Amino acid sequence: MSSAAPSFDIAIITPTYNRSTLIAAALDSVIAQTFDGRIEVAIVDDGSTDDTEVVLEPYLKQYGDPCGRIVLRYTRLKKQGVVVARNTAIAQTTAPLIAFLDSDDYWHTDKLKMQWEAMKADEGVALVHTSFRYVNEAGQMTDDGPQRLSNPCVGHCMDALLHEFLVLFSSVMVRRSIVDQAAKAEAHGQPFDSRWTNSQDYDLCLRCARFGSFAYVAQPLTLYRIHGGHGAMGNLPRAFGFHSRVQMDFVKRYGSEVGIDEAEIKRRVATFIGGRAESAFWQRQFETALKLCALAKELGVHGPRFEAVEKKASRPVWIYKMKDRIDRLIGKKR
Fold first, then answer.
1. Which of 324, 328, 289 is nearest to 309 (CA)?
2. How far is CA 59 from CA 11, 23, 25, 92, 212, in A?
3. Which long-range contacts (CB under 8 A, 24 or more apart) does 144-153 make?
């Protein structure tokens, strides 16, 4: 009789949908990790229509041994969304630490090792996240250096989290015991809430912050890919709407516990969306600016700041084209 497979140290949760051209880079970065413990990788396919399964075949053949140091499992579902995919993947794994890796992102080789060390150094830490770099579809850096080297989401950081979500989810490692606590506290009993098509990662991080502190590795150990199929980045008003609704819903349920009332969270939401609306206007993205003002009305946080943006963004476009042209000419003369 064969002995049972040894236990795992870290579980990697990777939902995927039509990422056959990118998922290999994600898996290669897991396989290349310098962390020498056992890793289980749960890949849950949310009904891909491309050749994802074909791309994964050699990986599953090489890393399918349940006694291996790295074990890959692949589950194909009918399309139900990323929330179901992530919840399914977590349910399939057993390791005491969970790391999230979207199938279009990838990691520096020391990422898991450094987070493991941070977890072992302080048992009060619920979650560890890292700095990151932006890359394009070809893996080329598209930023001016490491992002968010100084991050306020450290320690008992509920207040910082309720200003803005500054945790990149593909950089997260969290204790399973914390995720279990966060799930059991909800009527749905799941790690991720099916109400949030976007920002379900924000919701989980807020819920985890109730049960422990956050640690941060200020090194760009995560590579975050921006590409044509990155839906959330393509509709910012929709993404910001989910972000703000998650904030408001969390405070409605747990505000008295964390010391923030509904009036305060509405003020923060107005600041968040107002800043994005003004930024969109100055970037001459008038349609986006107006959509963000409309979102503020939907959320009940509209006011003079949004009225000013609406007034400016509703003027004829040619006025701003002429102004920008004059500004450029003046700038050249200087």
1. 289
2. 17, 11, 12, 18, 36
3. 146/218, 146/219, 146/220, 147/220, 149/218, 150/218, 151/216, 151/218, 153/129, 153/214, 153/216
Mean pLDDT along residues 17-36: 98
| Helices and strands in the chain: count of H runs, count of E runs | 13, 8
Q: Which residues, at least 6 apart from 173, have a Cβ–Cβ distance to it below 8 Å?
A: 10, 97, 98, 99, 112, 115, 116, 119, 127, 128, 129
pLDDT band at 227 (very low <50, low <70, confident <90, very high): confident
Number of neighbouring beta carbons within 10 Å of residue 290: 19
For residues 22-38, average pLDDT:
98
**If you search the block for the tokens 């890796």, which residue do you land on?**
101
Stated pTM of the model: 0.92
| Percent of the chain with pLDDT strictly greater than 70 | 96
CA nearest neighbour of 128 among 105, 148, 155: 155
| Ramachandran region, residue 148 (left: φ > 0; alpha: ψ -120 to 50; beta: rest) | left
Helix axis angle, 236-258 to 200-209, nearest 10°: 20
Give the model confidence (pLDDT) of 263-305 as tens digits.
Answer: 999 999 999 999 999 999 999 999 999 999 999 999 999 999 9
* Distance, CA of 238 to CA of 26 (rounded, Å): 27
- CB-hemisphere CA count at 13 Å for 145? 4
Is residue 281 within a helix (H) or strand (E), and if so which, with residue range? helix 262-282
Identify the CA nearest to 72 among candidates 120, 17, 122, 14. 14
List the end-to-end C-alpha distance of the chain, in Å, as a whole number: 83
Domain ranges of the chain: 10-229, 234-333
Q: Count the Cβ atoms, other than its own, within 10 Å of residue 55.
A: 18
What CATH architecture does domain 10-229 belong to?
Alpha-Beta Complex (3.90)
Structural element, H or E, at residue 289: helix 286-299
Q: Taking Cα atoms as reference points, which of 100, 301, 105 lies closest to residue 202?
A: 100
3-class SS string, 245-260: HHHHHHHHHHHHHHCC
Q: Give the span between the Cα atoms of 43 and 50, in whole angstroms.
A: 15
